[in-house]
Structure formats: C-alpha cells, structure tokens
Backbone:
C-alpha cells in the first residue's frame, strides 16, 4: 500500500513540546522489548538505566558532573543548529579545548596563583573556536560541507591527543604510561560541594544555558541565527550575511565545546589521558535536539542523557548489560525524536485507492 | 445537451474557515466561464475539488449530467478535465518534449507522442520546437508547454488558473485565440483571473465568489469592470487619488550603468541599467517575468552588492557598494516579489518580521538587544494603518492570507518613510480592494516626497500608477519616458524585445 507524507498546515505547538517526552517513553518501551528479546532482563535494564540514577541519591553528583559538559556543548550546538549550521565535530572541538587547557596547565606547572585557571579556561575556549574555524573557513571560502569537515577533524584531534601524551607532554614520572602529569593545585577545578565530586563546571553549565537563552531570545545575534536558519533568503534581505552567520555559529559552538573540554580536563580528569574523548560531543547532538534547540530545554535534555550514562554504568555492574547498551538507548532516543518531529510536521496519508476504469 | 460540469451545494470546511459554502453553478459545453473572486474567496479550493486534489465535504459534482466522484487528478484527467496551473511544473534543464513525456499518465511510444505533440501545436498555433531546452524559453512559451500537455488528453473542460499574469499583451491575444478556438470545438473553459477587462473580452459567463459564497453569476459583457470588482469585494471601489500635473523635485535615486553578474544557471543579470527618479515621482518598470527584474531589485536593495559606489546614488550619496543594512540607513527600502521566505519569514511573528527590516531605521535595537516593545508597537501601527487582517503583532506571518501579508509588508516599508522605495510586484495575487489600498499608499508616499520604483508585470497597474515608465527586456532597460507618451502596443513590443532602431545601434556585441 503506497503511503506519502503530507505537510501539515500548522504543526501543533503542544505536540512539538510533547515529542521529547514521547521519545523518551518510546525508548524505554522499545528498549525493554529489544533487550528482553536478546536474552537480558529488559525491564531491569530500563529500570537501572533510567530510574536508578534518580532514586539513588548517591548517584546525583554523578549526574551533575556528566550533565555539565553535555549541557555546555549542547547549548552551543543548539545555537549553531538554529542557524542551520551543522557542526557535528563538537567532540573534536571539545578535545582541542581540553588540549589547549592542558598546555596552559603544563606550561604553568611550577607556578601557582588564581590566574592560572581562568587562563586555562580562556585557552580552552579559544582552542575550541580555532578548531571550529577550520570548517567555517572551508565552508565560507570553498563551500565545503561543514558536516564532513567538522566530523573528520574529530578523528584528527584524537590522534593529536595520542601524539602529545606519548611524546612531548608525557608524564616524566609516569613509568611510560601515555598520559600527562597530574595538574598542579592551581590548575585543578575546585569542587563546590565539599565531600562530593561536584565541580565548578556544574554551575558554569547552568549559567551558560541561561545566558544563551537570554541572548537567543532577546538579542540581534539570536535573531540572526534564527532568521538565517529559518529563511536564508529573507535573512539576506534583512541584511544578515550568511557567511558571517556560519562563522559566528561555528565559533560559538566550537568555543563552548572547548569550554566543556577544558572544564572536563581540569575537573574530573586533572590530567590528559587517552580516555579523555568520552563522546560528550556526539551525545550533545542528541541533547540539543531533545532540548528543542532551546538552551533552557538543553538543561533538561542534558540531565536526561546524563541519566543514561550513569544508568548505563549501573546496569553494567548490576545486570551485566554490555557497555554498548547506553549507546543503543541514546541512539533510539534520537531516532524516536526525529521521527516524532517528522510526524508533527507531516502526516502520513495512504494514497487514495484508484477508482475502477469503468467509472469514466 | 446536459451541462458539461455542474456543481450543486459544494461545501468545504477547513479548520477555522469555511472555504466554500453551498456553491452551485454550471458550465455548458463550449462555454468560457470565468471564476472571479478576491484572494481567499475560495476559488482555488473550488478548482482543486473539480480537479480531484481535494474532496468536498458536502454537495455534488455532475459531469455531463452524471454524478461523479473525482478521487484524484488522474481520475479528473480520465474524465477529460485538464488544468494549467499558475505556477508551472517544468524541469528547466529538460527539453519541451521530455517535460511533456514526463507528465503523461499513459506510456506512449516517444515517436507517436512527438507526432501527437506536433499535431496539437499545429492545430492551435502553439508553435514551439519540441527539442528546445525549457530554460531557453520565455514564460509565455513555457505556458504553451503546459497547455499542450493538457490538450494532448483531449480535454472536455480546461481549467486555467490566472494564465495571463505573466504574459505580454501580444501573448495574451494569442492565448485568447487558442482558447476561443477550443471553445468553438466544444471544449469548456473555466477561466480564473482577477483581470476584469480580460474577462469581459473573453468570457461568456462569470461566477463571482466572495468569502466562500457565490455572490452572482452574470454575463461579463453586460457588466462594467467596476461593477464586477464591486461584487467581488462587496463594497464600492475607491479610485487612486492622484493629482494631475504634479511637479517633481530634485533627483533622489540616480542609477548609472548598473550591471550585475550572472549568479545562477538560469537567472538573467542586468546590464548597464541607467535611470533617474525624482522626489515625488513613481517610475514603473514593465517587463515579462524572467527578464532581469529579480537581479535589478536585488542590485538596488543591496542583496547583490556592487563594486561601483557611484552606480547608485541617493540624494547624491553613492551607495552602490553598501550592503542592505547600510542602504536602509541611507533611506532605501525595498520589497522583493516573493513574500513568503524572502520579504517575510512565515514562521516568525509579524512583530519579529518588523525587526527584519525596520530595526535600524526605527531604533528597535539597543546595545545588541532587540526592543520587542518597540517592534510590537510599530507592528500594531502597520496593522491598523493598512487594515491588515491579523489577530495582532504576535500572529505568524504564515497565518496571513497572501493579500494581507502583502499589505503588512508594504505597510512595514512605507511607514518607515523611506526616501527611496523599490517594490517588485506590489499587488501580485492581491485582491482588488487591497490592491487599491496599496496603490494609494504608494501614491501618498510619493506625494510626501519619496522617489518610488515599481517593478511589475501587471501593465494595468503600471499605467495607473506610474508617472514615468521604462521596459526591461533581457536585463536591459529602455529609456524612461512619461507614461502618457507610450502606447500599449509599443510597450508590448518593448517587452517582447523589439527595440527601436536607436536601441539596436546601442546594443552591446556579445
């Protein structure tokens, strides 16, 4: 039976806000079915992944720490995606931001002072921006698709970590381990709640989201991003340059990814290690969409995705779910979300049955 | 003989609007029947139901006396209903023949199809080389492809949706000859238009819709254009109040040898365009669509940024190399032809759409932040002054009907009191009442001392509105002359590219 998609005249506002919730719910249901079908405790998997991190108060600090980078990167991506600039390489910008911060930390190793951390953060932001500037340059000058360049640069940045921590930045006391030395006290992000792992990055993430929300809804910059993304032709008529917008979108999203990177290396890691790339940059794509490309929504979406990260680890130990299960749940969520968005904007119509020829 | 097509009690309800309310009329065999109405009167909905794109909620369609259910356009074509849409669906990179072959329901061997195409073209004088690429054809020629495509199916009813809006006067005459020949052979024609004098010249019967209801079925030859227009809009029609013998001030907009380069495959750049518009003057630029109008508007508005600063001057200041925003600051506002997605953002509120072009001229931005209160106030003023039918500044632009959106857009630019206003197709698809309001606003703006350029394909509009007139053809602009110095024939020849001998001598060798 042939089907076709038909554009709805006006997508329902309510449905637009309900799709994320529906996507999460569907992920749980389908996840439970799939994992049951392949011989795991499906209901248990959903419970451990989605509910244990919430009911077990000991896990709350983990949630905050995991959510912070997701929110910071997700906010940046939500701004770029509004402008239809598809920065898929936030992971690479996150890595380069972390590396830039590491460089400052290592260069100031023998020094101390309250200026070191701000300098590291600045370096991280600039690092992320510079790395995002490559796709921006290629896109605006040579019209190279930013999806490809930003994505491929991610793999280049991973190799950069491996090179730096094996040779020039290797810990002299590390017994040959490929990692840098532990940062000095002044280069570590302080915890804000004593006795927990909750570091300064968590409130920074919330502040970043609030500021971004204000800028996106009130400023000419936010207007520019929205109008270029929605109606590029009208944007040109209104006096907004498309190339400038591409640059701004990539620099802002790259800079925020870099910020997340430096906060991560100065906070939870406190040194550069091979395991630094944790797919935050990719997961933040889901966060941006789940948050409806709205910085306030990104806060909630970041927490939801953090739950799946923390819950995935719980499920590994309690019911022996493989590590990949987290990824499966996360990708299902993106899939249902995008499918839901499509159905909000379009309806599926069965192509009308052809009347018999005798009718004519 | 039974009626070819008979509608009785056709009703179609959309969420929030009754598009057709108990509409009944009949089309006789061989009759040319006009369907008249303002935008949003329900003409398109009605035609879509006849052509099977939509189904009526209530009422009956009878075809040759038999009740018929038209499930889809394919079924309509099988019954013998053909349609030529206002917007063509042609692939520019393919040939005439390939485009026709792609649109056929039945598979016909290409040699046979070509023979039939040539036969139809011969019979109706629709001469075209089937192997030419569509991109090289004029709009009138493209329309012929669509007509040939419809005629290949031997239709008994041909629906024409606003067919003449893009044609030169000569092309209109040719089209009418074809339509009259078809009618004489017994094919009925349902002719949708808002050009009343054409309906008077062509049609046997006119059915007038207003607000989804049938207002009147009349004989257009017994009516005046004015009486039909008044039936359409339901009230008396206002004339443009344009004082005769107005004096113009100093030159405000001076364009000197303005050229653009080709940006896309099929667009037409402008070449060495030169004209002057004085304070209080309305310059009309006539021409068939696709002759460089878009490039001219973009080059004036700043969307295409030039290199020669002095190519465009406003009150003596060279703005030729400035971008859109700077040109607005210097007093040049522009309205492009395409409303949705170019002049306005459909998904944005009207208030946000005001920010698009009025933010700098009206101080809606303070330190990078948008003063949404100022935008709302200004939008409210536009809505009130231009009688825009909208719930308020917060309604989305996309929720407005075409005519109302155009009133809003024109109002948004005019109330900024620009020293120079350049508009393209200011009343395209806009009903008579709204068009009169827009025309009056342009005349008033000129009276207040602005220089105005109106680019339009609607010759009636230009003749009524302009003080001086120039014709654009293949990117070249003829010399501007007072509108009274032109005859319609002369304009038509210029539109078709037949320049005077003097022009030919100046033609630039390729």
Residues:
């Amino acid at each position: 039976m042939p089907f076709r998609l038909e554009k709805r005249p006006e997508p329902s506002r309510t449905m637009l806000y309900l799709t994320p919730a529906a996507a999460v719910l569907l992920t749980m249901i389908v996840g439970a079915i799939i994992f049951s079908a392949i011989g795991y405790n499906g209901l248990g998997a959903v419970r451990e992944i989605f509910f244990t991190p919430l009911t077990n108060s000991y896990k709350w600090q983990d949630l905050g720490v995991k959510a912070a980078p997701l929110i910071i990167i997700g906010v940046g991506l939500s701004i770029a995606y509004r402008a239809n600039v598809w920065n898929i390489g936030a992971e690479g910008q996150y890595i380069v931001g972390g590396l830039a911060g590491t460089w400052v930390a290592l260069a100031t190793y023998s020094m101390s002072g309250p200026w070191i951390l701000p300098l590291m953060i600045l370096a991280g932001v600039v690092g992320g921006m510079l790395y995002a500037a490559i796709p921006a340059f290629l896109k605006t000058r040579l019209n190279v698709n930013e999806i490809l360049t930003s994505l491929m640069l991610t793999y280049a940045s991973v190799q950069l970590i491996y090179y730096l921590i094996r040779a020039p930045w290797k810990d002299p006391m590390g017994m040959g381990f490929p990692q840098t030395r532990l940062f000095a006290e002044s280069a570590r992000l302080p915890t804000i709640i004593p006795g927990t792992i909750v570091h300064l990055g968590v409130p920074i993430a919330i502040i970043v989201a609030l500021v971004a929300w204000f800028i996106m809804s009130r400023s000419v910059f936010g207007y520019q991003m929205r109008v270029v993304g929605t109606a590029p032709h009208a944007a040109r008529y209104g006096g907004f340059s498309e190339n400038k917008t591409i640059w701004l979108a990539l620099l802002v999203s790259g800079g925020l990814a870099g910020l997340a990177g430096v906060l991560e290396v100065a906070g939870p890691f406190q040194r550069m290690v091979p395991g630094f790339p944790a797919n935050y940059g990719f997961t933040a794509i889901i966060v941006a969409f789940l948050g409806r490309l709205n910085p306030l929504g990104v806060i909630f979406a970041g927490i939801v995705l953090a739950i799946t990260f923390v819950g995935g680890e719980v499920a590994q130990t309690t019911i022996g779910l493989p590590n990949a299960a987290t990824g499966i749940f996360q990708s299902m969520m993106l899939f249902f979300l995008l499918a839901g968005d499509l159905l909000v904007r379009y309806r599926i119509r069965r192509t009308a049955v052809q009347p018999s020829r005798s009718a004519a | 003989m039974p009626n070819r097509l008979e509608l009785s009690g056709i009703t179609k309800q959309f969420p929030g609007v009754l598009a057709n309310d108990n509409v009944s009329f009949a089309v006789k065999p061989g009759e040319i029947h006009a369907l008249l109405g303002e935008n949003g009167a329900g003409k398109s909905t009605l035609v879509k139901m006849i052509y099977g794109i939509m189904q009526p909620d209530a009422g009956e369609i009878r075809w040759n006396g038999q009740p018929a259910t038209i499930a889809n356009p394919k079924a309509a074509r099988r019954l013998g209903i053909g349609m030529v849409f206002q917007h063509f669906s042609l692939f520019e990179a393919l040939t005439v023949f390939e485009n026709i072959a792609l649109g056929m329901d039945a598979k016909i061997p290409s040699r046979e199809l070509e023979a039939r195409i040539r036969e139809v073209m011969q019979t109706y004088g629709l001469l075209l080389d089937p192997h030419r690429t569509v991109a090289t054809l004029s709009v009138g020629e493209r329309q012929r492809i669509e007509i040939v495509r419809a005629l290949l199916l031997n239709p008994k009813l041909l629906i024409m949706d606003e067919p003449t809006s893009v044609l030169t006067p000569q092309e209109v005459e040719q089209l009418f000859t074809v339509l009259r020949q078809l009618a004489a052979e017994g094919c009925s024609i349902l002719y949708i238009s808002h050009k009343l004098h054409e309906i008077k010249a062509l049609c046997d019967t006119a059915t007038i819709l207003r607000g989804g209801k049938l207002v009147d079925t009349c004989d257009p030859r017994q009516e005046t254009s004015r009486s039909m227009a008044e039936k359409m809009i339901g009230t008396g029609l206002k004339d443009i109040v344009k004082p005769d013998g107005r004096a113009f001030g100093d030159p405000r907009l001076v364009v000197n040898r303005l050229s653009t380069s080709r940006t896309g495959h099929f667009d037409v750049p402008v070449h060495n365009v030169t004209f002057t518009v004085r304070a209080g003057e309305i310059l009309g630029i006539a021409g068939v669509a696709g002759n460089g109008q878009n490039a001219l508007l973009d080059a004036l508005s700043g969307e295409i940024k030039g290199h020669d600063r002095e190519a465009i001057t406003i009150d003596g200041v060279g703005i030729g190399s400035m971008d859109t925003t700077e040109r607005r600051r210097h007093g040049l506002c522009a309205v492009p032809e395409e409303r949705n997605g170019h002049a306005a953002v459909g998904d944005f509120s009207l208030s946000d759409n005001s920010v698009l072009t009025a933010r700098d001229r009206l101080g809606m931005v303070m330190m990078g932040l948008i003063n949404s209160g100022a935008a709302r106030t200004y939008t409210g003023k536009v809505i009130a002054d231009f009688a825009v039918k909208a719930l308020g500044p917060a309604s989305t632009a996309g929720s407005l009907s075409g005519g109302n959106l155009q009133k809003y857009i024109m109002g948004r630019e005019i109330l900024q009191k620009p020293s120079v206003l350049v508009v393209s197709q200011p009343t395209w698809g806009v009903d008579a009442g709204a068009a009169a309001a827009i025309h009056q606003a342009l005349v008033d703006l000129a009276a207040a001392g602005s220089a105005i350029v109106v680019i339009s394909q609607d010759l009636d509009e230009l003749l009524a509105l302009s003080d001086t007139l120039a014709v654009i053809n293949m990117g070249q602009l003829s010399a501007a002359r007072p509108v009274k110095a032109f005859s319609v024939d002369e304009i038509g020849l210029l539109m078709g590219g037949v320049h005077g001998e003097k022009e030919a001598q100046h033609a630039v060798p390729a």
Notes: The mean pLDDT of chain A is 90. The interface with chain B takes residues 9-10, 218-221, 223, 226-227, 230-231, 233-234, 236-239, 241, 352-355, 357, 359-360 of chain A (CB under 8 Å).
